[in-house]
Structures are given as structure tokens and as C-alpha cells.
UniProtKB/TrEMBL annotation:
One of its GO terms (molecular function) is ABC-type sulfate transporter activity. One of its GO terms (cellular component) is ATP-binding cassette (ABC) transporter complex. This is Sulfate ABC transporter ATP-binding protein. The keyword Hydrolase does not apply. NCBIfam families: 3a0106s01 (TIGR00968). Keywords: ATP-binding, Cell membrane, Membrane, Nucleotide-binding, Sulfate transport, Translocase, Transport. It comes from the Bacteria. The lineage of its organism: Bacteria, Pseudomonadati, Pseudomonadota, Betaproteobacteria, Burkholderiales.
């Protein structure tokens, strides 16, 4: 089922949490709402669910206005970060719950419930845990059961709020891939909230980047990473080095037009000497100040040289560990080494600002 959000507004007191939001989610997509804490992701999700009422605007499910439809009639499934399973029920009964509480007319038979729950437990690859109780499961297993329980009632839309937030890094990673595969099997339109850009990039078909109640950009993971629409998106999706580019005074001198140049750490290469005049790419002289190796990557911190206002500021370069080791040998790199850093790729944004 497709979801459309039209001109949605919501404020808590004076805090505007959803600021004229417009969004189209085609049926069957897996979409991530990504943004920092307080950007309005959860509030948007709760409005989609019918747990929160917007001040203005509308939500359409499959083209029909669902803004005032009760949460029970929206046919949505939820999975939350701390989605407590019923502790006194077995895993099987937890998953069966949504089917058993249906009104008699639409309640499946006992045989149908058994077959459906077994099928769902197989889908989340935990059928061998059917007779256990929630406290006997790991956190990751519990979240998979929570998903099976949400899917049991065949929701038209699945809403997940930081579903893996409470789990440790390794389990989170496993569950992300698992969620992606699961979605490829069931194809239910799904929206999940996360503040983790890696999680969004790895799992989602499309990412909605939110900031201060507004949508900054909607796009595939590649689109938002390679072609960020705003400086916020660029900076939120990964580390970046920042340079202040040229500044122009507009006629009359009332306003200053500037430019900021952004380069990601893995887009900088280390050269022993200044590039020859006319060679492509911008380059900056810098001094190596320290290196840090974490797993397969080495992060090398440099300080800019020169006499401009940015002399002394730090620049990060990131290389695969083996590549850095080879380069260190070749250029005899050590703390204090003077090199040039050349950008393979830069992103520029104009900054229009009033002159002081
Ligand atoms: N019921 C409420 N009453 C008052 N303020 C609220 C309420 N719910 C949310 N807020 C405020 O609205 C803003 C957005 O909250 P929301 O939970 O939607 O953001 P979020 O992007 O999901 O953040 P997080 O990642 O921290 O959950 C926050 O400033 C929050 O304090």
C-alpha cells in the first residue's frame, strides 16, 4: 500500500516538529527516516501509525485519506526499540496473539493459526524457539519475534522505530541484513526510523533525511550520498573536511556571497610534492600530525599549512590500512612530514549571508 504525506504540520508548544512535510512512499518500498535526535522522525512515524494527530495536513494510504482513521483500522504493524513481548506467553502464543484477538467473524481457525504462526517463525528463522518464553531469548531473537508478531496480522504497512537500537553493534549488523532479506520476501511497505546513517544506507530502498522538522532530501542511498542536496545531508551522511572557498562581495557591498568546499576523507590523496601547475584537482600543503588505525582503515590527521585563516586547521584522510602502510614506506611518512593533499572529488555549496 502506498503512503502519501501532504503538507503535514505538527508542533508541541512552540516547537515545530513536522514543518510542512510532503512525502510519497510507493507500495512495497522500504524507506528509512534518517536524522539526528529531535528532528521529528518518531513524530512522523507516529502520525503515520495514527498514534499522533497532526495539526494540519493529511496522510493518504493507497490514495485514500486516512488522517482521521483510528489506529486500529489502519492495518499497520509496529516494531519498537523496546517492544516488550508478553512475558507469560510462549513465543508461539506471542506471534499468534494478533490473530486470536480478532473478532470471531474474522478469526482464523486453530489449524490456520498454527500453520500461519509456524510459517512466520520459519520466515524469521526461529521456529525452533516456538515453545520458549521471551526471557529465554537474546535481544536480537526477541526483535525478530516482534517482527513476526507484527507481520502475523498481514499489515499493509510496517512501521519500525529504531528496531535494533538497543542491540549491540554486531547483532545490529546481522539484523539489518536480515531485515533487508525479509523485506525482499514479503514486500510490505515499510518505514523505519533510525539515526544511524550506515543502517539507513545498508537497509533502505530510499532514505528520507530529516532535520529540525523538515525533509532535507529524499533519495536512494547512492543519490543522497553522492549528490547531497544540502550541506546538512552531506555532513550527516559521513565525515567531511571543510574549506572556505572564495568570497565575493555583491555590488553595493551589502551582502557577501561565499562558498564552502567539502571533501570526504577517502577522497583526499597524499602526494609528496605539489602537483604540477595545470594538473587537475585542488591541493593543499599540510603536515602529518597523527595516525589512527581501526580495523582495516587508517585515519591520518594533518594540519594545514600556509598563511591564510585556515592554516593550522585539521584535515582527515582515510585509506585502507594496507595502502597506507605501503605509502608510509614509499614517502617515509612520520609525524611532522610535509605533504600535499589533493582532492579527487569536491562538493561545493554557496553560502549567502548578510555582511556584518
Ligand atoms: N508528546 C510530546 N510532547 C512534547 N514534545 C514532544 C512530544 N513528542 C516529541 N516531542 C518533541 O518533538 C521533537 C521531535 O521529537 P521526535 O521524537 O519526533 O524526534 P526524533 O527525530 O525521533 O528524535 P529521537 O531520535 O531522539 O527519537 C523533540 O524536540 C521532542 O522533544
Amino acid at each position: 500500500m502506498s503512503i502519501e504525506v501532504r503538507n503535514l504540520q505538527k508542533a508541541f508548544g512552540k516547537t515545530v516538529v513536522c514543518d510542512h512535510l510532503n512525502l510519497d512512499i510507493p507500495a512495497g518500498e522500504l524507506v528509512a527516516l534518517l536524522g539526528p535526535s529531535g528532528s521529528g522522525k518518531t513524530t512522523l512515524l507516529r502520525i503515520l501509525a495514527g498514534l499522533e494527530v497532526p495539526d494540519a495536513g493529511s496522510v493518504l494510504f493507497h490514495g485514500e485519506d486516512a488522517t482521521s482513521t483510528d489506529v486500529r483500522d489502519r492495518n499497520v504493524g509496529f516494531v519498537f526499540q523496546h517492544y516488550a513481548l508478553f512475558g507469560h506467553m510462549t513465543i508461539f502464543e506471542n506471534v499468534a496473539f494478533g490473530l486470536r484477538v480478532r473478532p470471531k467473524a474474522t478469526r482464523p481457525s486453530e489449524a490456520e493459526i498454527k500453520s500461519k504462526v509456524t510459517q512466520l517463525l520459519k520466515l524469521v528463522q526461529l521456529d525452533w524457539l516456538a515453545d520458549r518464553y521471551p526471557h529465554q531469548l537474546s535481544g536480537g531473537q526477541r526483535q525478530r519475534i516482534a517482527l513476526a508478531r507484527a507481520l502475523a496480522v498481514e499489515p499493509k504497512v510496517l512501521l519500525l522505530d529504531e528496531p535494533f537500537g538497543a542491540l549491540d553493534a554486531k547483532v545490529r549488523k546481522e539484523l539489518r541484513r536480515w531485515l533487508r532479506r525479509l523485506h525482499d520476501e514479503v514486500h510490505v511497505t515499510s518505514v523505519f526510523v533510525t539515526h544511524d546513517q550506515e543502517e539507513a544506507m545498508e537497509v533502505a530502498d530510499r532514505i528520507v533525511v530529516m532535520n529540525e522538522g523538515r525533509i532535507e532530501q529524499v533519495g536512494t542511498p547512492d543519490e543522497v550520498y553522492d549528490h547531497p542536496a544540502t550541506p546538512f545531508v552531506l555532513q550527516f551522511l559521513g565525515d567531511v573536511n571543510l574549506f572556505h572557498g572564495r568570497t565575493e562581495h555583491t555590488p553595493g557591498g551589502a551582502a557577501v556571497k561565499g562558498e564552502t568546499v567539502y571533501v570526504r576523507p577517502h577522497e583526499l590523496e597524499i602526494l609528496a610534492e605539489a602537483p604540477a601547475p595545470g594538473e587537475a584537482g585542488e591541493a593543499w600543503p599540510a603536515t602529518l600530525s597523527q595516525t589512527l588505525t581501526v580495523g582495516p582503515h587508517t585515519r591520518i590527521e594533518f594540519q594545514r599549512e600556509g598563511s591564510g585563516g585556515e592554516a593550522g586547521s585539521y584535515l582527515d584522510v582515510e585509506l585502507p590500512r594496507s595502502e597506507y602502510t605501503a605509502l608510509r614506506e614509499r614517502l617515509s611518512l612520520q609525524r611532522g612530514s610535509r605533504v600535499w593533499l589533493r582532492a579527487r572529488r569536491v562538493t561545493r555549496f554557496e553560502v549567502g549571508q548578510r555582511a556584518a
